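hey so u asked for the seq, here:
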Amino acid sequence: MSYVEMPGAKVPIRMWADPTTVEDVAMQQLRNVATLPWIKGLAVMPDVHYGKGATVGSVIAMHGAVCPAAVGVDIGCGMSAVKTSLTANDLPGDLSRLRSRIEQAIPVGRGMHGEMVDPGRVFGLQAAGWGDLWDRFDTVADAVKFRRERATKQMGSLGSGNHFVEVCVDTFDSVWLMLHSGSRNIGKELAEYHIGEAQKLPHNQGLVDRDLAVFVSDTPQMAAYRNDLFWAQEYAKYNRAVMMGLLKEVVRKEFRKAKVTFEQEISCHHNYVAEERYEGMDLLVTRKGAIRAGSGDFGIIPGSMGTGSYIVKGLGNEASFNSASHGAGRKMSRNAAKRRFTARDLEEQTRGVECRKDSGVVDEIPGAYKPIEKVIDQQRDLVEVVAKLKQVVCVKG
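ran it, structure tokens below
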């Protein structure tokens, strides 16, 4: 489908979703965003749903300003995937041992490593920029400086919620590795600190929603936020890289006889800010639950823990600010899912997937998410499908 244009106060709201299916509170958030004085464009992805301040699944382009809540509290959250030389025939009938090995190698939930992972071990060499990342930690907000040790130990860990590590099989029986995570607790604390700082600024006092508070260019507050934002985005990128290194290590050991090789990794943020140029203007583009889908850009659009995912290639549609959805998107809140579904429902909906099937992850049940196939169909003018994957192992926090 092409987009539907809805009226907005400062800019039209371009929607790659059926407006009648979007919850009222999310539609109100979109209308609120469209009132911001600095806004130059708003694109809404088919996985749109209610979030803090700005909806998840929205792309907001502003001139001379950035809204921390429009990035999300998990700064730099995103996906990584890699195709392996394994095929479905190489996988054992019982995948519980493989899942257990992954869970032993990669801490989940609030877990962390006992000490910082040596990048030389997981990359095979000293990662470019690794030392610089930690040198630059000295420049981030004083409010989070005491978290340094925790941040180093959480590097290469999964977290909880909708984050996951998966082993998947595509339609040609090739095995893929895929994972989803972000900047862990340090990114969350940086985001919450800066949202609080933005809310204190005089130019934000008249906004329709205080969670939409912005930083404006050429101010010390904006400079401080950009510094911390880009550091957290880099942390998130390395976090996924370390996890993927650890995951590859598990797979190499488990399938030693197969001498597994890996193709080039695909990696993309879906909660981040980028400096981009549209219609002759330099804009700050925030993607909250959206990936960059410029012409030829590879991306990953996951479904839920029982429905599979898609590897896509961007078509470079500037009406969406070269963006696409970041996943299926929730159709009900976590609390609503817990009220509606049981562990037995989860077991039924994840049949054939080696994963947790207990009440602790019922809020991640496939029934709480929009159908991924429909979400893909709604953005055929944004991306083309390269591969369709179905998970056989899913590790959750």
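The mean pLDDT is 95. Residues 220-254 form the longest helix (35 residues).
lmk if thats what u needed
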